[in-house]
Amino acid sequence: MTNKDVFTFYNGVTIPRIGFGTWQIPNEEAYAAVTMALKNGYTHIDTAHAYHNEENVGKAIRDFGIAREEVFVTSKLPAQVKDFDGALQHFEETMSNLGLDYLDLYLIHAPWPWDEIGKDCTEGNIQVWKAMEQLYDEGRIRAIGVSNFAIKDLQAILDNCDIVPMANQIPFYIGRDQTGLLAFCKSHNIVVEAYSPLATGAILDSTEIKQMAEKYGVTPAQLSIRYCLEKDTLPLPKSTHEARIIENAQLDFTISPEDVAILDALKDVRAK
Ligand code: A2P
Fold it and tell me: How many whole angstroms from 237 Cα to the centroid of ligand 1?
């Protein structure tokens, strides 16, 4: 994987084909983890206000000395914020936490608050999307998108707003069938980002995945992350260990279409 491997949003902005995920990395560990990722060639870092690590993610990026335009930074609007002014205010907080003067990608973290999963927040999502559109039009953000959005949530934005989301970041890994959502996103030129490409580690003990990884001479983690690329999604693996951070970006192999089909058919591979 090189820095030149990118997805291109429909507005022409490019995003590196693999990103470093920082969900579940506490603020105290985020500085070291992001520094290790940058040192080992990652140029795309994904965080969120809700991860409570934006401060050290931003500090690591600033201290590393990489030119701002050489690193792609994503953050997310907290899921419970569903009003226009609240969205603008939280964006300013995120920028102040990160210590950066623009963001590459800003996402609505979820269509509903995490303690009310499934609640219909259509009107709120439209309001916050309008705030994101304003920030985008002002040049504060290079691309805007959503996360954890189902087809109906996306459709509400398409029906009521001006800008089509450029990305939808969803949980995606071997055994998690997202076929309908992937096809819908593709038909609207929405790049799908895969968070938890290892199912937070739970698929790595799967016998089927282990056996196929052996066949390709790679690790189960590499096979699982490469699978996301084969499905045209952008994986965001996360690790706090340098050897794994390096391993997770070494994806210069391809999985045959036959083997992708076998992986597509795997169910219940979560070992834990
Ligand atoms: P750690 O941070 O201790 O390395 P996901 O990206 O699906 O959220 O998965 C993250 C989980 O998988 C973390 O627990 C992480 O542990 C673990 N992990 C990340 N990369 C690897 C790897 N290459 N081999 C084994 N476990 C990994």
Answer: 7
What ranges in 109-267 are assigned the alpha helix state H? 122-137, 151-160, 179-187, 207-216, 220-230, 242-247, 257-265
145: in domain: yes
Question: Which atom of ligand 1 is the closest one to the Cα of 240?
Answer: 2
Active site residues: 51
* Distance in Å, CA 199 to ligand 1 centroid: 9
Q: What is the pLDDT of residues 192-207, one digit of tens each?
A: 999 999 999 999 999 9
List the CATH number of the domain containing 55. 3.20.20.100
Domains in the chain, number: 1
Low-confidence ranges of the chain (pLDDT < 70): 1-4, 270-272
Asked, for residue 211, whether it belongs to a domain, the answer is: no
Residue 212 located in a structural domain: no
Q: Is residue 227 part of a domain?
A: no
Q: Is there an atom of ligand 1 within 6 Å of 21 CB?
A: yes
Give me the helices (H) in 23-116, please. 27-39, 54-64, 84-98
